[in-house]
Amino acid sequence: MTSSAPAVGFIRGLSNQGDLTGGLCSSSSSSGETPGDRLPPVPTARFLEQAKSECHFTNGTERVRYLDRYFHNREENVRFDSDLGRYVALTELGRPDAEYWNSQEELLERKRANVDRYCRYNYRVDESFSVQRRGERG
């Protein structure tokens, strides 16, 4: 039997909540080794993936803009903008994600609902705490 090194890769996709996810995967050779027998080599390339959700308020909650922003190596490449109701590619790297996510109507509906479900909800929670704290200070 010949032995080969395990294959290692990075899987990127959407969770069932529509959020970007990723993780390492590996597979073992057919030589009878189990995945724990050998550790995959440490990747030499380094990269940073970030996601940031932002709520921008004007005049209390009268006007709310929700942004869901995705970065690769500190460069924003795609974002969901509630004012537009869709994803916008900011770089060529973000174009395939924006096109795919914009084709998923359920995902877009969930993201559009975040103006109320995420932004306005958290604004009210924070506002009630802030008003209570101001009253305690006298």
- SS-derived structural category: alpha+beta
Reading the helices and strands in chain order gives: EEEEEEHH
Give average pLDDT, whole number: 79
Task: Give the beta-strand count.
Answer: 6
What is the CATH first-level class name of the domain at 50-137?
Answer: Alpha Beta
The CATH architecture of the domain at 50-137 can be named as Roll
Tell me the β content: 25-35%
Describe, in short, the structure shown.
The protein is built from two helices and six strands. It is α+β, with helices and mostly antiparallel strands. InterPro entries: MHC/Immunoglobulin (IPR050160), MHC_I/II-like_Ag-recog (IPR011162), MHC_II_a/b_N (IPR014745), MHC_II_b_N (IPR000353).
Characterize the structure shown.
The chain has 2 helices and 6 strands, in the order ββββββαα. It is elongated and about 60 Å long. The strands form 2 sheets. Strands 3-4-5-6 form a 4-stranded antiparallel sheet. The longest helix is centred in the C-terminal third of the chain and has 33 residues, at 105-137. Helices cover 30% and strands 34% of the residues. It has 138 residues and is of the alpha+beta class. Residues 53-127 form the MHC class II beta chain N-terminal domain. It is a single-pass type I membrane protein. This is HLA class II histocompatibility antigen, DRB1-3 chain-like.
